[in-house]
Write a structure and sequence with these properties.
5-stranded antiparallel sheet, globular, alpha+beta, 25% helix, 355 residues, Chorismate synthase, AroC fold, 7 helices, homotetramer
C-alpha cells in the first residue's frame, strides 16, 4: 500500500505539504471509549513547533489543531479521528529561488527523480513540517497507553561531540522540557547549548542523538519474526527526517562484547541488567525499552554550497529559508510520538495472540 | 496483519520451527515471466547453512530446497512460489533440558510470555533457522533485481574489536566467499579468524558488524514518508536474529559532524561524495546504497549462566545445543537476502508512482 | 487494518460523521503527474447531494469540496490528496429524540453493540453522508481511468417492481442525469417516478436496482484468487449503505442455465456473447464489465414502527429526520465511484504482474 | 499486496497449481493455545474431494493433509500453520490438447492476457483444486469459532430450476452430508439428483445455489464502513470459482419491497423477523447470518464449442478432462470454509474495537 500510513491496528495516515493548505492526518483504529484530552494533544504539538525552543528558527507557526471527526462529547467513537493543522506564515516566495535548484542533503532532486514533478516550496511534503501530524497521532496513542501504564520519554543525549553520560535510570525526564536543548541531563544543558549557538554563529549545523526510554511495558509485545518490536521501532525512527541510525539496548557497542558480558542474567526478581534494551527475540521482556536515534546535521546551512540546477548545470547555492542549526531539540516530541504509535499498535495486536 | 510476512508487492511469508517438519515460505507477487535459476537459489542457501564455514557449528543440515508451486518449465507464472526445506539432523533430545529453563539472551521467556505456550526445541520458531526461508526469498528477489542491474553485496566488516578500514569501493566482494569469516578485506581475514577461534576456545561468543553495498540502484526508489527506503531496509535488518543496530551512510558518525562537512555536494557528474549512503529523503539518489548492521554476540555460550526455570526459581544453566561463536559469517547471506527483498519491493512499487 | 480504507495501491481512507465538523478522506497512491479537474470532482459530488433530484429529501447541503493537499498548480504530486466537505444544515436537535431509541433497519443498535458508545445524531458515521467522501475519491480515480479509456456508467434499472428491460448496449447513459430517477431507459422514467411519488405519499419507502457498465477495460485486470476483479467490485458495492446483493454478468439467472447456454463462445473477433459480464476467472477479458446491485428500501419511514429503547423497553417510533423514499437515484454516483476506485486499483496492480 | 491472501488478523495465504507438486497454504494469526483436531480438518477436506459425492467426477484424489508447522503436541503455537496437500492422479497429458486452445468459460485466455505465460495443465492455479487449501484454512478457523459458539452451515438450496422452499430454521443441517447433492431439504434430494443425472447424460452442466446460515454470532462483528461483515462475506464468496452472485438476507427480493414490509421490528426479545440476514449497517446484530451464493453451470461440457487457439484462429473444442456436471454439491464445504475465515477474522478484530 502507499507509504503515508503506519501501524496495523492503530493506523496513522498523514497528509499535507509545507506550503499547502495544511498538514494533517487520520488515526484509524483508536479504540472506542477513550476520554480524550485534546488540550494535552495540543500541548505536545506546541513542543514540536518552530519557536518552541530558543535554539530553533524564528518562524512563528501557531499550529492550532482542529479535530474533524471521531470524537463526540470528548469520547472516541471507534471511528477515524481526522485532524488538520492549517499552514500559516508560509512565506512561499522565500523559496522561489529554489524552484530551479536542488539543495544538497535535501530530497529536492530525489523527489523529482521519483515523481517527475515537485512542490519546491519549503520542501513540499519532504519538509519536517509533516512530522506535526505524527506528533498529533502519537499524542492520541499516548493517551491509550496511559491506561496501560506505558510511559514514553525521550531526551537529547548528544549534540555534536557533547554527550551525556548519565544512566537513564538516574534521569528526571520532566527536566527535558525545562531547557531549550531538551536534555534531561542537567550537566549537559550548558555545553550543548553553547555548541549549538557556536554552530549557528558559523552559519553551520550540527548532528545529535536522542535516547528514548519506555517504562511500564508489559512482557509479550512484538510480533517475533518480521515485525519484531525493535524492528518496528527502528523503522518508525528511521522514517523521521534526518535520522541516520537506530540502536536498541547496547546497540553498536555489543559488537565488541562477548556473550558472557552481554547476556542479561535472568533472576527471580527480573533481569539483573538490561543490555538487551527491554526486548528479546523481538518481544518485550518487561524491562524498560531503551533505544537511541542518530540525527545528521541539518542540511540547510548559511554557507555556500556546490550543487546543480534542474538543467544539470553547476551552480553555487546560498541558503534561503529559516532553519534550525540542530534538529534534535525539536525532534524529541517526534521520537516520542513515533514510539507511542508503535507501542499502542503492538498493545492492540497482542490482544489477538492467544485464544 | 500477522507478522510473518514482509513486503507490499513482492511479499515473503515464512513458516516453520527449528525442530518441526521443516522451514519454508511463500513468495507472492514475483512478476511472471522470470526464467528462474533454482540452482542459484540453492547455492545461496548453502552459504547460510551450518557447516558452510569452518568457524561455525558442526551441525550438518543438508537444507535441500523443494519448490512446491509458482514455477512451470523454469518460468515464474505470477502465482505464489511456495517452498519447503525439510528439517534433518534435528536432535530434539538435546533440548530436553531446556524445556523447563529459560536461556539468557534468548527469546525463550518472552515467547512464553507472549503466547502462553512454547516449542522449546532449538528455540522453535525463534531459531535463526527461520532465516533459511529468508535466504530463499531473497535469492528469488535477487534474480528479479539482476534484470535491473541492481547488485547487492555484504561482507563482515568487524568482529569484536577487529575492524576493516578499507573503503567499500576498493573491495572485491567476490573475495567474501573465499574465507570462512566472510570478509572482503584480505587484511582482516586472519585477525578476525583468530579472534573467533580464541573466543570459541574460551567457550564464549563475540559480536560483529556487516556492511552492505548495493550498486546499480536507479534513482527514485523508496516511498518518502513512512516507507522511506532506508526505513524499510532498517526494519528488514533489525528483524534478523541478534541484530541490535542499523545505520545508513555515515550513520552515528554524522552526529558529531557539521552540515558543511556532511552534505554531499551535487555536481553535474553526480554527487561528489556519498555520506548519505545513496538515499536522500527516503528515496534512492542513484549512488551506491551503503549501510551497516550491528550483531550482538551469540547468546548461547558454554559458560555457566544464572537464569530461572518456568517455576521462577533460580538455576544455573550450562549450555546445551551446538552454536556458532560468532554469528556474522553466517549472517552475510541473510543481510543480502533481506536487502534484495526490500529493493525488489520498492522497484515494483516505483512502477505505480507516476501516471 | 482498520476498516475505513479501501484499495491496495490507490487507497481511499474516509472519515467523518453526519453531524460532526465534516466528512472527508485521503487518497493515497494517486499517481503523480495527473492534471486534475477539481470542478469535475465537485460536479460528481453535486450529483450525490441531497436535493440533487426532485425525488429526494428537502435538505440543502452545499457540499463544497476543499482539497487540503496533494495537488500543486493543478497537478497531482504523488502525495496524499486529502479533502474535506464541511457539514452544514445539520439540525442535530432533530435527532434528540433518537438518543435513547434504536431505529429499525438502521445500525443504531449494532454500532452501540460494537463500540459501547454511539453518536446518535443522524446516524453518526453510519449515515449515508459518509458516501460523499467515496464520490470524491471515485471522481479522482475516474480521472486516472480516463487516460486509459476506461468508462464507468451506472443507472437505475429497477424501482420496486418497475424494471427496465432495455439491453445495456442500447442505452445512452448521458440520459441518466436528465431525469430525477436516474435511469437511462426513457420508457422507465415515468413509471419509476410515479412509484416513488406514490410510496412517498404513503410515508413509506421502496427498494431498487442499479446496473453498472464499464467499457474500455483492458484484458488482464484482477488478481485471480482472492482478489478477483468481481470479488473486489462486489465487496465495494456491498459496502454501500442499503446494498443487499451483487451479481456479475447474468448472476443469479445463471443458476437455472446449462453450460451450453451460459458459456460465451470465443471467436477471433472477441466473445460472441457477454454472459460472463466481462470477467473470467476473476480477470477482465476485454468485454464490457456488467454488474447489478440490489438496494433495500430506505429504513426510515414515516409510519410508526415497533422498537426498543436503550433500556431494552418496547417503544413505538414515529420517524424523525428527513429522508429519501428511495435511495437508488442518489446512489448512482456512489456505485460509479466505488467501481472507479476498484478499477484504478487493479489498473495499477497490473503494472507489477509481469517482469 | 498480492492477491493470494485473505483476512487481516487471521490470514490465509494459498499456493499451488492443479498439476504442480501440490496445493497448500499458510494460516498466519491463528491464536496460540488452540487444541487442534487435525482429523477434523482432514474430514472437511474429504468432503470437498472429487469422488466424495456420487454426482461428481470419477477422479480419485486422496488429498492427504500434511501440516508443516505451527502445531506442537496438538496445540497451536501462535506461529504460522503451513500445510500441503500433494497432487496425485494428475494426468497432465489429458491436457496436452489444451495447451494451444482456450476453453470457453474458463480463465485460460484471461490468465495468459494477464501474465503472458500460462500453466495450461488442468487450469493451473485457476483450477478449483486451489479451494482445497481454503477448506483446510476454513476448518482451522472453524475450530477457533467453536470456542465462541459460532456455527456455520451451508447446503444446496437450488439446482437449475429445482429450488428448496423450506425455511432455514426448519432444516436439519446434519442431513446435508447424507446425500450426494448436499441439500438439507429431504424433499429436494430426489429432484435435484435427477436433474444433475439428466444434465450429465446430456454432456452438459447446470448451475446452482448454496444457502449459508451462521448461528451463535455475537452482536458487534464487522467493521462498519468498507469492511462491513456482509461485504467481506460477499468478497469471500465471489472469490470462489464459478460464483456469479451474492445476497445477504432477503437480498434481491428486497428491491420490490417497501420499508414497512422489509424492516425488522426490534422487540425486547430480539428482532421479530430476520429479513436483514443478521447484519445491520455492516455489523452483526446477534440474529442468524443468512446469505445466498449463485453458481454458474460448470464451463467444461462434453458438447462441442466454438473457441480460438493461441494464434487467434477459430477452432472447435471437444472437451477433455474430467469434471462435475454441477459444482454446488462439492462447493458446500468451500462456502462454509470461506464463511469461517471471515467470521474468525472479525471475531479477532472485534477484540481491538474498545478501550
Amino acid at each position: 500500500m502507499p507509504g503515508n500510513s503506519i501501524g496495523q491496528l492503530f493506523r496513522l495516515t498523514t497528509f499535507g505539504e509545507s506550503h499547502g493548505a495544511g498538514i494533517g492526518g487520520v488515526v484509524d483504529g483508536c479504540p472506542a471509549g477513550l476520554r480524550i484530552d485534546l488540550e494535552a494533544v495540543q500541548h505536545e504539538l506546541d513542543r514540536r513547533r518552530p519557536g518552541s525552543t530558543t535554539l530553533g528558527t524564528a518562524r512563528k507557526e501557531p499550529d492550532r489543531l482542529e479535530v474533524l471527526s471521531g470524537v463526540y462529547e470528548g469520547i472516541t467513537m471507534g471511528t477515524p479521528i481526522a485532524f488538520v493543522i492549517r499552514n500559516a506564515d508560509a512565506r512561499s516566495r522565500d523559496y522561489d529561488a529554489l524552484k530551479e535548484v536542488y539543495r544538497p542533503g535535501h530530497a529536492d532532486k530525489t523527489w523529482e527523480d521519483k515523481y517527475g514533478v515537485r512542490d519546491h516550496r519549503g520542501g513540499g511534503r519532504s519538509s519536517a513540517r509533516e512530522t506535526a501530524a505524527r506528533v498529533v497521532g502519537g499524542a492520541i496513542a499516548r493517551q491509550v497507553l496511559n491506561g496501560s501504564g506505558v510511559q514514553v520519554h525521550a531526551h537529547v543525549s548528544q549534540v555534536g561531540a557533547v554527550r551525556s553520560n548519565v544512566r537513564l535510570a538516574e534521569l528526571d525526564f520532566a527536566m527535558t522540557w525545562s531547557n531549550a536543548v531538551r536534555t534531561a541531563d542537567p550537566a549537559a544543558v550548558r555545553p550543548m547549548t553553547e555548541l549549538i549557538e557556536e554552530v549557528r554563529a558559523d552559519g553551520d549545523s550540527i548532528g545529535g542523538r536522542i535516547t528514548c526510554s519506555i517504562t511500564g511495558v508489559p512482557a509479550g509485545l512484538g510480533d517475533p519474526v518480521f515485525d519484531k518490536l525493535h524492528a518496528d521501532l527502528g523503522k518508525a525512527m528511521l522514517s523521521i527526517n534526518a535520522v541516520k541510525g537506530f540502536a536498541i539496548g547496547n546497540g553498536f557497542d555489543s559488537i565488541a562484547m562477548r556473550g558472557s558480558e552481554n547476556n542479561d542474567a535472568i533472576t527471580p526478581a527480573g533481569n539483573s541488567t538490561n543490555r538487551a534494551g527491554g526486548i528479546q527475540g523481538g518481544i518485550s521482556n518487561g524491562e524498560d525499552i531503551i533505544f537511541e536515534v542518530a540525527f545528521k546535521p541539518v542540511s540547510t546551512i548559511a554557507k555556500a554550497q556546490e550543487t546543480v540546477d534542474r538543467a544539470g548545470k553547476a551552480v553555487v547555492l546560498e541558503a534561503a529559508g529559516r532553519h534550525d542549526p540542530c534538529v534534535v531539540p525539536r525532534a524529541v516530541p517526534i521520537v516520542e510520538a513515533m514510539a507511542c504509535l508503535v507501542l499502542v499498535d503492538h498493545l492492540l495486536r497482542q490482544r489477538t495472540a492467544r485464544l
